[in-house]
């Protein structure tokens, strides 16, 4: 499915801010599974997503999706295969366009179209049906500009838009982190309902260890661009996961302490 082989990535080479985040990084993601990526701030989770989606390019190495070499495709070409929902609820939607226009944009992803004919009348029923599955009443607000929606409503819309064309791979980068606990739970459950129903291969970044176990098939933990844990989610408990997470962070703070002295 998704295969990463020998990936290297550094930032700001030759400066005091040089970061060699990935060095010879390999990863194999199985089809139709949900894999959670865990790890402390700065360990490379979003950089990994940025390289898969084409926002950043690898220094060396190969990333392929269903045997397609993604290195040969630009970000907008990869978008035909990859859906992404960001942590920031404003990133996956166009706030000044209406819900209907946003849905139409997602529907026309990767095709050439004119803005004058953005909304196709014969697709409105389809959008209404899809929006109804969210149970948020958005189907009654088709002509509302998205900037007037709450964060949770925007994230839910963003999720529908990212999955409308059933991507081969869905990337969720802490997509519920900016929401209050109740809304976060609702959006997470809707996400998993949709992912399971459509059987979408999903990579999800999270800092919530309980969600990681509950909603995924596989858990991968990164530390400074390296895989330090790769397990089936049903084979690990939250307590064990917390221990590994804390152990890693303790090692990190010891190192920082040593540098400080
Ligand atoms: N565009 C960039 N330019 C320079 N450095 C970058 C860039 N993107 C990421 N980095 C650096 O790479 C490292 C990994 O960053 P990344 O954003 O992938 O972390 P993360 O695991 O997503 O963290 P968080 O949990 O805080 O979101 C950090 O040291 C960061 O400063
Ligand atoms: Mg990040």
Quick recap:
This protein is of the alpha/beta class. The protein is built from eight helices and ten strands.
Q: What's the CATH class label?
A: Alpha Beta
**Side-by-side strand order of the widest sheet:** 6-7-8-3-9-10
- Annotated CATH homologous superfamily: P-loop containing nucleotide triphosphate hydrolases
CATH topology value:
Rossmann fold
Strand and helix layout:
Elements: E1 2-11, E2 19-29, E3 34-38, H1 45-53, E4 60-65, E5 68-69, H2 75-78, E6 82-85, H3 99-107, H4 124-132, H5 151-163, E7 169-173, H6 181-198, E8 201-205, H7 209-215, E9 218-223, E10 226-232, H8 238-260
Parallel strand pairs: 3-8, 3-9, 6-7, 7-8
Antiparallel strand pairs: 1-2, 1-4, 4-5, 9-10
Helix pairs in contact: 3-5, 5-6
The structure holds adenosine-5'-triphosphate (ATP) and magnesium ion.
Magnesium ion binds next to α1.
Explain what the structure shows.
The chain has 261 residues and is an alpha/beta fold. It contains 8 helices and 10 strands. A hairpin with a 7-residue loop joins strand 1 and strand 2. Helix 3 packs parallel to helix 5 and helix 5 packs parallel to helix 6. The C terminus is likely disordered. Bound molecules: adenosine-5'-triphosphate and magnesium ion. The site of magnesium ion has 2 residues, from helix 1.
